[in-house]
């Protein structure tokens, strides 16, 4: 819904400008997005197809439901905060209001959290006696959160990689010191405080703040395999 609203406000989606008049490439974009919808919907399809009837929700179910709801709220709030900031004239050159003070991409974190929780919630819908852990179909549904992470973290045309790397040039040109301080102390995904004290090897691993997201002023691209 937010992407549709943003495309309407901006009179289109710039990510498709280069392929609108190229049938083959535009068809590929369309098919990939359809596949993405199918893959991330796998936990929901699994739940709906299950013959197992729940008499009540377990504690784990409620935790998954709460996590999914939190993910939705985080994504919606982050998108609205960013939209308001843009409408107010992009004060400060880069967004650091609300959730954006403690995460560089809180909207993507919310999206990823939703589908991990959806997969966890599907566990108790398994028909197998041992639950989802013994059901290969439940394990196959892990494709949903993993594919979501792959798209948002690893594909240059979209997600974190598209927002960072060479596209950080505008921030380093406008306010290099302020942005460098913000980046050093702000998690790439997980909203948190104290990120500046996290060791670099942890940032590059469990916090998913990969070196390819860094900006290299010499050539305008993200360096590969080099630390900060």
Mean pLDDT: 87
Give the end-to-end Cα distance, rounded to a whole number of Å: 36 Å
Order of helices and strands: HHHHHHHHHHH
Q: What's the Cα radius of gyration? A: 20 Å
In which range does the helix fraction lie? Answer: 40-55%
Oligomeric state of shown chains: single chain
Q: What structural class should be given to the helix and strand makeup?
A: mainly alpha
Number of strands: 0
Please give the largest β-sheet.
none
Helical stretch tally: 11
- The low-confidence runs, each spanning 5 or more residues with pLDDT under 50, are 222-228
Shape: globular
How much strand?
Answer: under 5%
What does this structure look like?
With 228 residues, the chain is mainly α. Helix content is 54%, strand content 0%. It has eleven helices and no strands. α3 (42-49) runs parallel beside α5 (106-122) and α4 runs antiparallel to α5 (106-122).
Features:
mainly alpha; 0% strand; globular; disordered C terminus
What is the topological layout?
Blueprint (H helix, E strand, L loop, with lengths): L1 H8 L13 H18 L1 H8 L9 H29 L18 H17 L13 H5 L2 H12 L4 H5 L5 H6 L1 H10 L14 H4 L25
Helix pairs in contact: 3-5, 4-5, 5-7
């Amino acid at each position: 819904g937010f992407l549709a609203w943003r495309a309407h406000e901006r009179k289109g989606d710039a990510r498709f400008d280069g392929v609108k008049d190229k049938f083959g490439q535009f068809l590929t974009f369309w098919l990939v997005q359809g596949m993405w919808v199918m893959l991330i919907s796998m936990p929901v399809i699994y739940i709906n197809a299950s013959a197992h009837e729940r008499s009540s929700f377990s504690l784990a179910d409620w935790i998954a439901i709460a996590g999914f709801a939190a993910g939705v709220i985080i994504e919606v709030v982050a998108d609205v905060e960013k939209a308001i900031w843009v409408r107010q004239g992009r004060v400060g050159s880069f967004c650091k209001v609300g959730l954006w003070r403690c995460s560089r991409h809180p909207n993507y974190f919310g999206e990823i959290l939703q589908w991990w929780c959806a997969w966890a919630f599907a566990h108790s819908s398994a028909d197998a006696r041992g639950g989802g852990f013994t059901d290969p179909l439940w394990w196959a549904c892990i494709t949903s959160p993993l594919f979501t992470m792959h798209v948002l973290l690893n594909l240059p045309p979209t997600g974190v990689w598209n927002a960072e790397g060479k596209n950080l040039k505008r921030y380093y040109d406008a306010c290099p010191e302020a942005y460098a301080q913000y980046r050093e102390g702000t998690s790439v995904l997980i909203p948190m405080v104290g990120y500046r004290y996290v060791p670099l090897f942890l940032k590059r691993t469990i916090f998913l703040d990969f070196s390819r997201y860094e900006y290299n002023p010499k050539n305008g691209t993200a360096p590969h395999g080099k630390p900060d």
